[in-house]
Specification:
With 309 residues, this protein is of the alpha+beta class. It has seven helices and 13 strands.
Length: 309
Amino acid sequence: MSGTFMKGLTLTKVVDGDTVKIEIESKEESLRLCCLDTEESWAGGSKPVTNAGKLASKWAKEFFGVGEDGFPVDGDVIKIDVEFDTNDPVPECIKKHRGNYGRLICYVHKGGENYNLKAVENGWSPYFVKYGRSRLYHSEFLAHEAIAQSKVLAIWNPVTNEGGKSRNYNEMIPWWYLRDSVIQDYRRVGIQGGVQSVRLDYEDIVEAAKSGSDLAVLCDLQSGVNKWPGDGALIYAGSQQHKFNLWIPDRDSQSSQSILNLIDTRYSSRGRGYVYVSGKATLYPENDNGKPQIVLNDIKQLSDLPPSM
């Protein structure tokens, strides 16, 4: 299967090794490059800035032919092709292939080369499956990662970050594949069983909340509880682009304590992350500005497996 392409788009900036900006219909869009997680080149996030991150950013700018500041030089017009990880129509891809911060998630091609694969082949990123493996290039990513590791390139060479901060891939990669295994179950069985994805099926979730329908939703609880308003607990189970909450009332009750303990020990932080949440969807507050939510009253509303397994 090949993905949906948008060809001949103008590159406006290379931010770092896994993020670029382009122009779509006179609007600038940020792209988070699918299956890549290069190390950081600038401070401000939760991950450490590393020498490998700075070098990956430099390599990306050279690959795309921009200046050191990431912008095209002297009015150059740089054209690239964007490929999404499904073959849905373009408007649908633009709507649903977005990450937690609203950036489009995709592959980028320039001069006949898939940048995402080249970055892994050159050792600037591991094959990043934390949010699910590539539907289109899984075997290619595995092969390219193996090439980089066999040659001890970039992040796979301890010398690259020697004397500075680094990332522990021996710890992170198995955790990514644990999360990927849940996504594989969802793609293989969950979708057919009617499970909703906050990112992919958000409009359906909103409509279900308006009518008070029962739902099963795949949620990522890596961040655990986000707020403790009143006597309850609030979890932001969606994203900036797709607001969806889980509300746990009366947090000191035995049933709520069981739910909170399970989330804390099994799903949050470096746990499984993903969980199937079932229950009645409602809007809160109950008006046109309300956000969809499910109230958790019973530990049985949380499951590792989709309903049909």
